[in-house]
Amino acid sequence: MKTVRRLLYRDIAGAVGFVTLAFLSLFFFIDFVDELQDVGKNGYGIVHALLACALELPGHFYELFPISVLIGTIFALARMAQSSEFTILRTGGLGPGRALGLLTLLAIGFALLNFAVGDYVAPLSEREAVALKASFRGGRELGRTGAWLKDTRKDSNGRDVNIAVNVKRTTPDGVLEGVRIFESDADHRETARVVARRARIGDGQWTLEDVQITEWPGGASQPGEPLPRVREESLARAQWPSSLDAGVVAAAVLPVSTMSTVELWRYSRHLTNQEQASQRQSIQFWKKALYPFSCLVMVALALPFAYLSARRGGISYKVFGGILLGISFVLLNNVAGFLGVLREWTPWVAAAAPGLLYLLLSMAAFTWLVRYR
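^ that's the sequence the OP posted. Answer follows.
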């Protein structure tokens, strides 16, 4: 059995590695062509573009590896079936259950590799890529409306203060620019507005620079109420207490690809605690947590191809079928995520449904082929 295991693992791992290398080379070329439009601007050169594309490769590996596992496993098993190697192995005692067990162990290894890259290597490299590009662009713009964060704290009288923070852009060293802070009381009446040119995140407080503070001691007036007394103040530097730490702010201002599974979970919990919409982030957390296990689904999808007769089409047709299966899985996975947000499905159900569906289909096809073919 060790010889059989070595034969299967060597052929499948080699095919998966070749397909992965081909995919990464293709996406590296596409990213490089896309980066060429920025070459020559603000000192951004060819070397910087190549480095930025290289830093994005771990993220591409994480996203593409399950599809590479599917195509590579299909190619290896179809080739063995065409050359009658798999038939000889079946005659020598490699039953369906044993074959499924051997490939499951290999799939677990693929899943662990994908998890390690996606949770440790890819977030770090993506952050470095974002910082590299931002260093030549003078910062990173956060869209037309900026990034919004929410916080709560107690005032000197022990009353709740609701806080909304808006950030327009970030600098390469993590400093926030174009910061606006809105404070309101329990009745949602605005009590203070703080506008700062820059903000640095500290332990339990932010350091604001070039600050304009506007306060309404009795709360902003409502229609029909007398105008409250307004107090305005300009400061070169001010300390603003906040429980928003660097991790929460980074999760709000950086792409999702820069966050690990734990960071996504913490950010979704923060949104829930602040009574903000967290459905999208919760689904992203479950998708990231379950995505490495899609390697098991891909191997299960590939196994039935070993039991197809070699006369029913060549290897190219089977590989093409594997590509279509992989594309359909990615599409269904993305559609399920969007539908989960729109329909407010249970997050783990929206994230796990595509994988479970394809796993059931693969097991049904495998059982039918073993029993009737």
